[in-house]
Amino acid sequence: DKIEVYNYAFPLGRIPVKFLAFFEFFFMKKLYNRIEKEHGKPDILHAHFCFLQGYIAAKLKAKYRIPLAITEHSSELINGISRFRKKYFSYGYNAADIIISVSSAVKDRILYYFNKDSCVIPNIANLVFFKDLDENTFLLNRTHFLFISAAGLIKRKGMDVLIKAFANVKVDNVQLMIIGEGEERKNLENIILHYSLNDRVKLLG
User: Fold this and answer.
1) What is the DSSP string of 118-161?
2) Whole-prediction pTM value?
3) Pairing state between β 201-203 and 174-179
4) Contact between 104 and 62 (Cβ < 8 Å)
5) I need a labelling partner for 127 at 20 to 30 A (CA). Which of 12, 25, 43, 134 fits?
6) What is the pLDDT of residues 156-192, one digit of tens each?
7) Helix H segments across the chain?
8) Tens digit of pLDDT for each residue in 58-114?
9) Which of 159, 137, 161, 133 is nearest to 148 (CA)?
């Protein structure tokens, strides 16, 4: 959409976080210098996720004196963060001029862990996508209702909770399709078998 995007890819593999942070900051400085040379000094830095992006952006703010906004999406805050990672979150939030949370739950956890307030702006959907849908037609003219959930099959995504909740749905012709792969797949398969949901819940990979 005529917006220039700059990208650095550096396939370092699985390395300790402190080294990853060092290399990310190194490359972001190079990226910043290129952008400033071509477009002038930015008006604002906006990082999504405090770990590690907000942390890196906070270091850029300190170096180049640019206002910083951090939008927090991380479910890690809900499930609990390690003492080691907490220092990275803390550095980023303390440097931010504004913190945006994508939910009230995330806002509450930032306040609980870091005593930092944030404003809530939920994840955004393009309403043009739904403009031709009439609710009654959409629901009544279908032979079944289909839910789709897409995420990595890891514990903190809560797919086990979703499947167990779906087992309580007492409506005919309702299905759940799960798109994703991960270490929880076997456990999810066992839950589907336990609740006899083979015809209603599918793991699509």
Assistant:
1) -EE-PPP--GGGGTT--HHHHHHT-SSEEEEEES---GGG-HHH
2) 0.70
3) parallel
4) no
5) 43
6) 889 999 999 988 887 778 889 999 999 999 999 999 9
7) 17-39, 55-64, 76-79, 83-95, 104-114, 135-140, 159-166, 185-194
8) 999 999 999 999 999 987 887 778 888 899 999 999 999 999 999 999 999 999 999
9) 159
